[in-house]
Amino acid sequence: MDRLELDPAAGKYTGAFDPAVDSPSSIVIHCAAALTGRDPIDMEPLYTVLDPDHLDELLSSDHTSVEVQTEFTYEGFVMAVTNVGSITIRAADDARKSR
User: Domain boundaries in the chain?
Assistant: First the structure.
């Protein structure tokens, strides 16, 4: 993934990645690291939130006949990731306010 785009009006970041090249779990970790300014080694392991292997399997590029999205909170952000290579991220506090 090249970069995250900020949509200030919506209060969210969006990005795209190639699911045939990058695993969704690695994209989540790298996005969280970029937004927090922390080294991934110093962050909470993703497996404390969900099983990274299951995330990668659920969103594998083998399942392209229908779009699949999953959403979860990691490192203070709500991460919405799809099998077609999109990620949307907003601060967990902002997500609660918009409900």
Answer: 5-97
Please name the residue that has the structure tokens 């919405």: 80
> What CA–CA distance (Å, rounded) separates 49 from 16?
22
User: Where does residue 12 rank: exposed (0-12), middle (13-18), buried (19+ CB within 10 A)?
Assistant: buried
Q: What is the per-residue pLDDT across 58-67, written as a single tens digit (0 to 9) for each?
A: 998 675 688 8
Question: CB neighbours of 18 closer than 8 A, spacing ≥ 6?
Answer: 85
> Which residues are CB-contacts of 27 (< 8 A; sequence separation ≥ 6)?
1, 15, 17, 81, 87
**3 state SS of 32:** helix
- Whether the model pTM is above 0.85: yes
Question: Residue 93 half-sphere exposure, CB side, CA atoms within 13 Å?
Answer: 0
List of E strands, the chain: 5-7, 12-16, 69-74, 77-82, 86-91
> Could you tell me the two tokens for 6?
């900020």
